[in-house]
Specification:
It comes from Paenibacillus hemerocallicola. With 155 residues, the chain is an alpha+beta fold. Helices cover 30% and strands 41% of the residues.
Length: 155
């Protein structure tokens, strides 16, 4: 059961970072390499408590669908998305935000369980954990780039 933890300082207000992190449109832009797109539930704009989104993407050469629900939400401090259906046995992704001196500290905790028992645990060690860490860092760096720029947020 790997837990991936990332932390990034962003020179932007906490509300901007919070909104960018829950933006469906920004998520699709940040994950263009895997051709991730929202195909059901909330498919554009900002996702909120209790809402779901189903993502379709190609990861590790395999087309897959993943549905998540926002299960916890306290604006602009944190939100949690949990897998409802998808390739993992389970996952919980916690997004936390804190502000100091005009900057935002964005923290992600991605706690997941791979499918297939010992085979899934072997995949974690061999490649999956590293793949997921890179995926999350790339997405967060994109959020940082947009947050620190002048680009308007999607509504």
């Amino acid at each position: 059961m790997p837990i991936i933890y990332t932390e990034l300082t962003i020179r932007a207000p906490i509300q901007r970072c919070f909104d960018l992190s829950r933006s469906i449109d920004i998520h699709m832009q940040s994950t263009a390499k895997s051709r991730e797109r929202a195909v059901a539930g909330v498919t554009s704009g900002l996702i909120r408590l209790g809402e779901t989104v189903t993502w379709e993407a190609v990861h590790l050469g395999v087309r897959q669908r993943l549905t998540v629900r926002i299960t916890e939400y306290s604006e602009p401090s944190y939100f949690v998305d949990e897998m409802v259906k998808g390739a993992f046995r389970s996952f919980v992704h916690r997004h936390e935000f804190g502000e100091a001196d005009g900057q935002t500290m964005m923290k992600d905790t991605f706690d997941y369980v791979s499918p297939l028992g010992w085979l899934g645990r072997a995949a974690d060690k061999l490649f999956l954990e590293a793949y997921m860490r890179r995926f999350l860092l790339e997405r967060n760096r994109y959020i940082k780039q947009v947050a620190e720029g002048e680009q308007e947020l999607p509504k």
